[in-house]
Amino acid sequence: MNEPLVTADMTASLESILITDELNKRPSRPPDYETENRALLTIAQHMADSPATTLQKLAELAMQICRADSAGISLVSKKSGDFYWPAVAGAWKPRIGGGTPRNFGPCGVVLDRDSMQLFRCPERFYPYLMPISPPVTEALLTPFYVEGKAVGTVWVIAHCAERKFDAEDLRLIESLGRFAAAFFPLQTALEAQEEQSQSLRVINERLVVSSVRQHELTEQAQEAEAALRGSEELLARELSATQHLQSVGALLIEGGFAASALNDKILDAGIAILHSDMASMQTLDEDQDALRMLAWRGFDPAFGKIFQLSCPDTETSCSVARRSGHRIVVPDVENCDFIISRTALENHRKMGIRAVQSTPLFSRTGRLLGMLSTHWHNPHTPQAGDLCLFDILARQAADLIERKQSEEARGRLVALVGSSDDAIISTDLNGIVRTWNRGAERLFGYTAEEAIGRPVEMLIPAGHADEESNILDRIRRGERVEHYETIRRRKDGSTVDISLSVSPVMDQRGLVVGASKIARDITDRKRLEQGRRNLEQRERAIAVATAVQEMEAELARVSRALTVGELATSIAHEVNQPLAGIVTNAEAGLRWLKAKTPQLHEAEESLNLIVRDGNRASEVILRIREFLKKDTPRATRLDINVVIQESVALARSELLKSGVGLMVELSAELPPVRGDRIQLQQVMLNLIMNGSEAMASVADRPRELRLSSQKFENSGVLVAVRDSGTGLNPEKLDRMFDAFFTTKPTGMGMGLSISRSIIEAHGGRIWAAHSDSPGLTVQFTLPSFSENL
Predict the structure, then answer these.
(1) pLDDT tier at 252 (50, 70, 90 boundaries)?
(2) How far apart are CA 706 and CA 721, in angstroms?
(3) How many helices and strands, by DSSP H and E, does the chain display?
């Protein structure tokens, strides 16, 4: 250790060496209650075994738990009024018995300001500290009180620059300061006893020297002996109280005790420390918002019924202490300003309570846990020193209640973990399994005996190896992992979909020591989600297919309309022929009727011919109307030859106009097909008109269009449309059924694409091939009616 070199600075001020405000700004380690409790138990044990050296033990423990280089106790001397050091530990131990001036020293500043103080290099302001080696780098001092008056300080010192005190050091020495305050009356008694013993020795010496004053000295000796007996009785009471504290502390630290037995120990200790006749302890019932009686000592059994619950507005000392947050002392119940109703007074009288004190029990975090009370049959005011010891007991009682609540919560948690369907696992920071519940056994297939002690990587499948290291990195930083969805491997090698939540596990010092994991099987949910996605995809596909079908149907209708436009001449010819016949036959009928002798038979024949031609015109218009009608396709039993003939009738005039010779070769032995008549007519008209247009530029040979039908593979029909045009090159031949592909300057490129969709929707196939002679043959197949059922 390198000691700092300190020189006197005559210009330094007190404020320049005080750094108290800096203490709360420094990082602090978490509270170490276990170390604190062990230190207090050690002091209590030492008080019982060797009270004369208790302060020295307290200084040694202060240095140890605060990791200081020196530590000590300062008390104000009754003779000189300055501070003296009855106990010093560490590097300054040789300075036991030394001290500092009351009006010019660090301890004096602490008492004057009535608060803890942190000094840095105090030698710069207090020159008398310069000769003391090693010099002080930092000194942390806190006062302790007896009967509300500061009578001394507890201090710890660092002699090296690397050691800096924090808020936890202050908490620990303040706790020790409260113990020093409780011990102060005993220390005073010990000093008084020593002075009285010395007085007795002086008196005995004087008896030997002078017998003249024997009577007077005898009286003085008797007075001294009486005072000595009083001191011994006080010492005995203090030792008894300390032994009770030691007994309670030992049970708390060792554990494995019955709560009722420890309750009795605490109540016995309370009675012994405050010399009371009865004692009681309550816990806070948060559901009832009341203090519930937990245990009592020295009372009639009816006490538990009368004071079973103390609500906030009850006329009792414990209710007032709860509302105020500090101890309430009632020296005389009969003269109390809040116990005034007849019922309240009668209840206290019935239980023999004339005086009472109630001390709130708080958790280490400041949460109210309950109340510890003592009661007297007669008016009584407890002594300040006794109350200091009682505060230590109250701290132990609070620890007991808090531990019991923690154990109950832990028991509920263990039951919850054990019964949970989720896998709940804990690991250390190396990923080694430490706990494994039944849910984990069911989910992963490993028993707890098989899993505990093994690395959790046994659950991680290939392709997910980095997950655990990434999770542990986040846990080390104190972060949580929420609902992380992944997969894990079971004992049998199968995988399971899980939702994983991971939380850091911390020790009492707030350090991360492991991870707690909750794994939930989400296989069914994933399956449902996938099923829903598949259903949505199917619904979208159906919607798209329906939209496509609707669009194709609309395009087909548009295409039919365009075809009708192209066949306008042919259609007009088909309509005009029967209309011309109607006119001719009507004129003939009129002539027969106007004859001198009306020829009724001939007129009747003319009318029959008019009816025939009118029906022919009506059929032509009906076919065109149905051809253009926007309707849902209907599959019916059809004769394909009839469909071909109806299509030829619509296109015949246009073919004649274009100079195209038409040859139709239809097989009479064809099976019926299932299909929509209008759609198949559209296919035929598209192929007929395309074949006619393909021959428009032919001038060196006849323009011939051959239509044929025949059986196909014994169960279907084959329809072919063959032209004598120029044909197509192979590249265009492969694309001629694609949408928007056309070789015509004014074509849309939709006719053949729509024809293919119609034929394929009917279960057939359409294709094109070059003929042996010039031209192109387009043919399609359709299954028979029986195959299409």
Answers:
(1) low
(2) 6
(3) 22, 24
Whole-number Cα distances in Å, 757 to 121, 549, 764: 99, 9, 10
CA distances from 681 to 307, 564, 739 (A): 103, 12, 20
Q: Are 310 and 316 in contact (CB under 8 A)?
A: yes
Q: What is the pLDDT of residues 393-408, one digit of tens each?
A: 888 888 878 878 777 7
**CA nearest neighbour of 439 among 419, 411, 462:** 419
Cβ burial of 282 (10 Å; 0-12, 13-18, 19+) is buried
Query: pLDDT category, 55, cuts 50, 70, 90?
Result: confident
> Which DSSP string do the residues of 378-413 spell out, in sequence order?
S-----HHHHHHHHHHHHHHHHHHHHHHHHHHHHHH
CA distance 675 to 634: 7
Strand duo 704-712 + 661-666: pairing:
parallel
Does 536 have pLDDT greater than 70?
yes
How far apart (Å, rounded) are the C-alpha atoms in residues 208 and 210? 6
Query: Residue 780 is encoded by which pair of tokens?
Result: 């399609």
Q: What is the token pair recorded at 648?
A: 């030829």
**Please, which pLDDT band fits residue 333 given cuts at 50, 70 and 90?**
very high
Residue type, 714: N
Contact by Cβ (8 Å): 664, 648: yes
Query: For residues 679 and 104, what is the distance between their CA atoms, to the nearest angstrom?
Result: 117
> What's the angle, vertex CA 40, arms to CA 29 and CA 367, rounded to 5?
60
Average pLDDT over residues 419-428: 86
- Measured in residues, the chain has a length of 789
Q: H helices within 638-735, ranges in order?
A: 640-657, 677-694, 730-735
Residue 576 corresponds to which tokens in the numbers above?
Answer: 């005009």
Residue with tokens 């276990």: 34
**640: CB partners within 8 A, 6+ apart:** 670, 673, 680, 709, 717, 719, 782
Q: Contact 227/220 with Cβ under 8 angstroms?
A: no
In this prediction, residue 557 has a pLDDT band, given cuts at 50, 70 and 90, of: low
Q: Please, where are the H alpha helices in 255-359?
A: 259-274, 302-306, 317-324, 342-350
Query: Radius of gyration over alpha carbons of the chain, in Å?
Result: 56
Least reliable range by pLDDT among 262-276, 473-487, 540-554 = 540-554
Residue pair 373/387 in contact by the 8 Å Cβ criterion: no
Question: What is the SS3 assignment for 502?
Answer: strand
**757-785: average pLDDT:** 87
pLDDT over threshold 60, residue 702: yes
Contact 110, 116 (CB under 8 A): yes
Give the type of residue at 178: R
pLDDT at position 135 over 90 = yes
What pLDDT, on the 0 to 100 scale, is given for residue 415?
73
Residue 452 CB neighbours (<10 A): 15
- Burial code (b: 16+ CB inside 10 Å, e: under 16) for 545-577 equals eeeeeeebbebbbebbeebbebbeebbebbbee
Contact predicate 623/646, CB 8 Å: yes
- Answer for the pair 283, 291: CB distance below 8 angstroms, yes or no: yes
Query: CB neighbours (10 Å) of residue 288?
Result: 10
Dihedral in degrees, nearest 10, Cα atoms 745, 746, 748, 749 = -30
pLDDT in tens, 600-632: 787 787 788 777 767 766 666 665 556 555 556
| Number of Cβ atoms within 10 Å of the Cβ of 364 | 13
Q: How far from chain centre, in Å, is Cα 116?
A: 42
Residue predicted with more confidence, 297 or 773: 297
